[in-house]
């Protein structure tokens, strides 16, 4: 082979090697590309202050910094969300009665992170009556019409427990489903005798002269688990690292709420659509992202005492967290 032919061969081999190397770079992501890959999460949320840490984390880019690509979808209520897991969503908010009933009904779900606790120092749910009402204590609610978000809701379950604990007969309570904004009008008109009201409407009604009987959730425990996050149990067990990123993001969102509350309230206004005057008056809940089987067990006992068939549930299997 002459020198010219040999040179041409070496050049051809060089081009081939460069082409293979370029193809490898295009086929296999670089370290920078891998670092930019994020886990996609489909998340349902309710546009109220309860879920503010997640909203702040989304608005401030915290999820992205923690390797999560979170897509939020707004829902008006949480009651129908458990059945959407593994299909429409990866994470959704719920309460203990909704989760326990869903699992008892055959769904494989798990509590994966906390969100808020109700405490005696921080009450977001109270039962209100008219100022001239003859209802003076929980037991007086027996036989009365009480407006609430739903007969199977965590608030109504707590109400029934509260009345019984006070010596009343909860079986005679007539539950009337109503949205929170409409409850004051229903009470004012006499269509109901009491309402299961939530902040910020509690403060609004107290300011208008209505009377609080107290906080039913605290009859279950103090502090007591209120809304929290759930996922498909199999998905949760396979994605503990993702759950760790999720909780870390919530913690970072909460840190911003504590350090810059005006900014956090602006985020709440953006996602909720509520007027600034209302946003300014909303009290912050007690946020806590830990969740344990014991917190669910107290709710299971209350529900069983009310005749619900939950005795066979293994509560420890229903909690799957990052740790």
Give a written overview of the molecule.
This protein is an alpha/beta fold and 323 residues long. It folds into two domains: 176 residues, D-Maltodextrin-Binding Protein, domain 2, CATH 3.40.190.10; 95 residues, 3-Layer(aba) Sandwich (D-Maltodextrin-Binding Protein, domain 2). It is 42% helix and 18% strand. It is built from 13 helices and 13 strands. The strands form four sheets. It has a five-stranded mixed β-sheet with strand order 8-7-9-6-10, sandwiched between helices. Strands 3-12-4 form a three-stranded antiparallel β-sheet. A three-stranded antiparallel β-sheet has the order 11-5-13, with no helix packed on it. Strand 7, helix 6 and strand 8 form a beta-alpha-beta unit. Helix 3 crosses helix 10 and helix 10 crosses helix 11. The protein is globular and about 65 Å long. It starts with a helix and ends in an 18-residue tail after the last helix. About 6% of the residues have low confidence.
Number of strands: 13
Strand content: 15-25%
**Percent helix:** 40-55%
Q: Tell me, what is the CATH class of the largest domain?
A: Alpha Beta
Number of helices: 13
Radius of gyration: 26 Å
Residue-averaged pLDDT: 90
| Domain count | 2
Assigned CATH architecture of the largest domain: 3-Layer(aba) Sandwich
Protein structure class: alpha/beta
Spans of at least 5 consecutive residues whose pLDDT stays below 50 are: 17-35
Shape annotation: globular
CATH topology of the largest domain: D-Maltodextrin-Binding Protein, domain 2
